[in-house]
Amino acid sequence: MIIFGTRERKLGLAELPGHSCGYCDNRGTLFAQACTMYFHIFWIPVFPYAKRVYSVCSHCRQSLTLYQMPPDLNATATVVGRKLKAPWYYYMGLILLSIALLLLAVTMIIGAIASVS
Ligand SMILES: [Zn+2]
Fold first, then answer.
1. Ranges of H-type helices in 18-70
2. Does residue 30 sit within a domain?
3. How far is the CA of 41 from the centre of ligand 1 (A)?
């Protein structure tokens, strides 16, 4: 039985300077929060396939998706969200698969050389 599926993890927060919250109107309380969606096999991340960016107010906790944000905040959050990238270990499944295929190829080459000589 193979256990696989998708999960979502937070990548981090980044400040959104120059914007005020649309609900509580406080300045300097807005942050961009990026989350990545990734595919996993046995809870080992194989590859990320999507990223979602939200604006979060640290004062009133209002959270907006990119589609709910005003255009100026959307543009800033998109730029800030691009800087929050998935770390290398979110590709661990692909790395392990590549190593397994490389070892298989080396084993087959060594076996072919040994059978010739
Ligand atoms: Zn607020």
1. none
2. yes
3. 38
Q: Domain for residue 115, yes or no?
A: no
Q: What's the whole-model pTM score?
A: 0.76
Q: How many domains does the chain have?
A: 1
**Is the distance from CB of 37 to CB of 45 less than 8 angstroms?**
no
**Which tens digits make up the pLDDT trace of 49-99?**
999 999 999 999 999 999 999 999 999 999 988 888 889 999 999 999 999
Residues surrounding ion ligand 1 at CB below 5 Å = 21, 23-24, 57, 59-60, 62
Q: Determine, yes or no, domain membership for 102.
A: no
Cα(28) to centroid of ligand 1, in Å? 10
Distance from residue 25's CA to the centre of ligand 1 (Å): 6
Query: Residue 85 C-alpha to ligand 1 middle, in angstroms?
Result: 26
Residue 2: which pLDDT band, with cuts at 50, 70 and 90?
confident
Domain that holds residue 70: 4-90
The answer to the question of residue 113 being in a domain is no
